[in-house]
Design goal:
The protein has 234 residues and is an all-alpha fold. The chain is built from eight helices and two strands. This is S15A2 protein.
Length: 234
């Protein structure tokens, strides 16, 4: 058998399908379609993502709105120490997205990273709320619980930050570019709405509601914690 014959025999191993032919059944798996929202081209999952982000931003900014006052009036720290701890917490929140991005890209993927770090986030809020109960231990206990809670909150809020918007965009099929663009507009609207509303609501909960004979920081931190639990449930 000459070289041409050998090449010809190899070519017979391949079959060619014209543009008008249907591909053989079983060789190409059919991509499963995601459930749509009210008959539109929007995946149903994005409704949960938008609500999740509203609750998460409410919980973060609601807690942060009274954090400095908490240090000043509950711990009786001076302004310099209160400001330093507040800014250290904020800086940590903006550093931890690096950790979340590495976890999502190199290890767990976006979905599992969001779930696992949201659990860490919820635990941090709960610990922070418990640490604000005056009758629970002395000031050292309150400080330790609050610092541990703040660390876990910083890890959670920063860790999911680079994942949620990208995960939402991944829910759309390639041809639905217009719907994907509108989703991001709604997504960032929910972020700003949650941040704005919590900035007004949480200080009211702290100042207008009394518990344990003083300003109710436990409630002011507890409501954001409850919203974060709801966010994780979504």
């Amino acid at each position: 058998m000459n070289a041409f014959q050998r090449n010809e025999s190899k070519e017979t191993l391949f079959t060619f399908i014209s543009a008008g032919d249907d591909p053989p059944k079983g060789d190409f798996p059919v991509q499963k379609k995601c459930p749509k929202l009210c008959g539109s081209n929007y995946p149903l999952s994005i409704a949960f993502i938008v609500v999740n982000e509203f609750c998460e931003r409410f919980s973060y900014y609601g807690m942060r709105a009274v954090l400095t006052l908490y240090f000043l009036s509950f711990f009786h720290w001076d302004e310099n120490l209160s400001t330093a701890v507040y800014h250290a917490f904020s800086a940590l929140c903006y550093f931890t997205p690096v950790i979340g991005a590495i976890m999502a890209d190199s290890w767990l993927g976006k979905y599992k990273t969001i779930i696992y770090l949201s659990i860490v986030y919820v635990i941090g809020h709960l610990i922070k709320s418990v640490g604000a109960i005056p009758s629970l231990g002395n000031q050292t206990v309150h400080v330790v619980l609050s610092m541990v809670g703040l660390f876990l909150i910083a890890l959670g809020t920063g860790g999911i930050k680079p994942c949620v918007s990208a995960f939402g965009g991944d829910q759309f099929e390639e041809e639905h570019t217009s719907e994907r663009s509108k989703f991001f507009s709604i997504f960032y609207l929910s972020i700003n709405a949650g941040s704005l509303i919590s900035t007004f609501v949480t200080p009211v909960l702290r100042g207008d509601v009394k518990c344990f004979g003083e300003d109710c920081y436990a409630l002011a931190f507890g409501v954001p914690a409850a919203l974060m639990v709801l966010s994780l449930g979504e």
